[in-house]
Design brief:
Layout (H helix, E strand, L loop, with lengths): L8 E7 L6 H17 L8 E6 L6 H11 L3 E6 L5 H12 L5 E4 L11 H9 L4 E6 L7 H16 L8 E8 H7 L9 H4 L7 E6 L13 H15 L2 H29 L7 H34 L6 E6 L9 E4 L2
Parallel strand pairs: 1-2, 1-4, 2-3, 5-7
Antiparallel strand pairs: 3-8, 4-6, 5-6, 8-9
The structure holds uridine-5'-diphosphate (UDP) and magnesium ion.
Keywords: Glycosyltransferase, Membrane, Transferase, Transmembrane, Transmembrane helix
Subcellular location: Membrane
Protein name: Glycosyltransferase family 2 protein
């Protein structure tokens, strides 16, 4: 933090098939950044970094157009869809080179952009990380509410240190971005990972709005993947629970064996077919379920061991400061 000049702020915006939302969102973000610059809260070198996460629509063309007409916009494009978490990580890592602060915000303007002032105030007060927490879930449908509440409940049950109702609207200082760059894990769950880094931090509460345009890009499959990534990257409690379950079943089976032998010794027949069927189905189910959970962890270890790149940047557009004619475009294979 430097008190003599305004800080360079980078807004990092992940975009996946956002052609409907982007034109308006980009304009609103630009106006907000302008105001922050005029008020001396953000330096003129501040930028809006739009990360194209392998969109199949015109998102990248739109980003290209914005960067061509206004050097305040920068663009980064992936070679394919790597997912929201990778998109914001790539944006933050690119911002780290130039920015004092990076704020990640969704492209659909559901997260109240006016809360940015409070984020910056907390940063000025000495926070290295500021978490945006949504006030309520009224803008969400019934299903989204149910799955989100279920997910946070499960995470807390499993002992994970995640903040309820914190999505990825978040400020990170240069120091925090540098620390984040040291984490090389492929199994990425930023909203669980970042709080483990420590640093002075605070929260900002904001209202969630309806999506301005387009539809949610988080399909059920993406949500399920994020949830399993979250659990497997933050906790090994499920494996401990399986051990405890195995122990409980073993104790129960010893009791049942003693009971059956006693019944047999007293000349009584233990009723057979139904009990056998129920027990074998139950045990089969529990075994496969437990194997599946262990398998999830093995799969994650496999991915971590291969350590493939978390994303591949195909194009990067970035114009120096406010200078009109300077353009740098990197092409990486
Ligand atoms: N997003 C992304 N890659 C994906 C899915 C989503 O970059 O694979 C972006 C999307 O463009 C948006 C943000 O992540 O900026 C949040 O997605 P969305 O608004 O669709 O999720 P929701 O608000 O419905 O949870
Ligand atoms: Mg959204």
């Amino acid at each position: 933090m430097n008190n003599n000049r305004p800080n360079t702020l980078y807004l990092v915006v992940p975009c996946y098939n956002e052609e409907e939302a982007l034109p308006h969102s980009a304009q609103v973000m630009r106006e907000k950044l302008n105001r922050l610059m005029q008020e001396g809260k953000a330096s003129p070198e501040s930028k809006i970094l739009l990360v194209n996460d392998g969109s199949r629509d015109k998102t990248w063309q739109l980003i290209h157009g914005l960067c061509d007409t206004d050097p305040t916009f920068a663009g980064l494009s992936f070679s394919r869809n790597y997912g929201h978490q990778s998109a914001i990580l790539a944006g933050m890592m690119a911002a780290r080179q130039h920015a004092d602060i990076a704020v990640t915000i969704d492209a659909d303007l559901q997260q109240d952009i006016e809360a940015l002032d409070q984020f910056l105030e907390k940063y000025q007060a000495g926070c290295e990380i500021v978490y945006g927490i949504r006030n309520d879930r009224n803008a969400d449908g019934f299903f989204k509410k149910l799955t989100a509440n279920g997910f946070y409940g499960l995470m807390h049950l499993l002992g994970c240190n995640v903040m309820s109702n914190h999505a990825d609207y978040r400020l990170l200082s240069k120091k925090a971005l540098d620390a984040l760059s040291e984490y090389k894990e492929v199994n990425l769950f930023l909203r669980g990972l970042i709080p483990t880094m420590g640093f002075p931090s605070d929260v900002v509460y904001f209202d969630v709005k309806e999506r301005e345009a387009g539809t949610s890009k988080y399909t059920l499959r993406k949500m399920m993947n994020l949830a399993t990534d979250g659990i497997t990257s933050m906790s090994t409690r499920p494996i401990q629970l399986i051990s405890m379950l195995g122990f409980a079943v073993s104790v129960f089976s010893v009791i049942m064996i003693i009971y059956c032998i006693a019944e047999w010794a007293m000349g009584r027949n233990v009723p057979g077919y139904t009990t056998t069927l129920v027990v074998s189905l139950l045990m089969g189910g529990l075994t496969i379920f437990s194997l599946g959970i262990v398998g999830e962890y093995v799969g994650k270890i496999y991915l971590e061991a291969k350590a493939r790149p978390r994303y591949i940047v195909e194009s990067f557009i970035w114009k120096e400061g406010n200078c009109e004619n300077f353009e740098r475009e990197k092409q990486r294979k």
